[in-house]
Amino acid sequence: MNQRRAVFLLFLSIVFFFGVSTAAQQNAPPAPPTEVKAFDNPNDAGGTITITWKKSADDGAGENDVLGYEILRSMAQETGYGPIGTASLGATNYVDTSAVDRVTYYYRVAARDRESSTLSEETIPAVASPQWFNRRRTNMLISVVLFSFLILWFIERAKRGEKLFIRPLAGLEAIEEGIGRATEMGKPVLYIPGILDMDDIQTIASMAILSRVAKMVAQYDIPLLVPSKMPIAFTMAQEVVKQAYIEAGRPDAYNSDNIPFITMAQFGYAAAVNGIMLRQRPGTILYLGAFYAESLILAETGSSIGAIQIAGTAMPAQLPFFVVACDYTLIGEELFAASAYLSGEPRLLGSLKGQDWGKAVFMAFIALGAILETLGLHFLTGWLVTW
Fold it and tell me: Same domain for 87 and 212?
């Protein structure tokens, strides 16, 4: 009996000992994070400080697994700490986006569980400051410098009188043919500069082309009709055509009534232009600029009267209608290249040639990158990434 009692008491002692040890372990605070560092976040505009640390020994291991981390900040050493944010379990860094430039901060990171938390050592002072150059965008700097060099180089060559080869565009070469056909038939040329005002780049490009077209029309001595939808574009069209007639030596042939302002209503303008087509029966119609839903209405009416139609726009949704209904279509950037192609102005030609060479360089990078990626080499792809 005494032996049984002794065994029972020993068992109770063992259970009590392990129970107390387990409770003590459960109540023990988690191990603190170590190697805590704070430094100015690189390559930014200021106002951020990065805090890094080595995970707590109880983060995913041991009996007292931490639930997360709390980041504390102070402007004074060893005192005045307050929480500024939290990080999840397993995290090893945090970016303080509330820092003020050129103010000294100290940081601590606390590992916390359900009941308690343990502070790390204090970091050395950290100060946020802006950087004037983001080194992660060095690739963009090189691209801009290369692109600018090519444009300026070709502009200088064009100014020296060197003939630069520009890929011929069928639509642009057809403009003179269309004006000649209208002259032979004794019919006017109808020029529609789009439906947007002068704050749109397509309308600006259209006005540059209009200048060249008006000069050719003045030389051939046939009417040029330019109905406008927007007030400023209307004023610009009148001035461009008037100047072109003066440069052609035919100021007396200029007629401002042939360049009317119609209306700012989209389909009211389309209806009026359709009426002009049916009454005047132009031999050639040019649609160059920005267009919307009225594009097919205009192009179908022009096709019904048998006119040569040349269109150009950078509106992707309208290109199919022009391609189907017109004889020639300038697609996208061809509209912007047209002004350089027709005018022969050195700055425009040099810019166009430089852009083409820049695109060729980028296409070469794409091809090289595809080959390297296929071979499992990723350094070029990583260098080309922009942040």
Answer: no
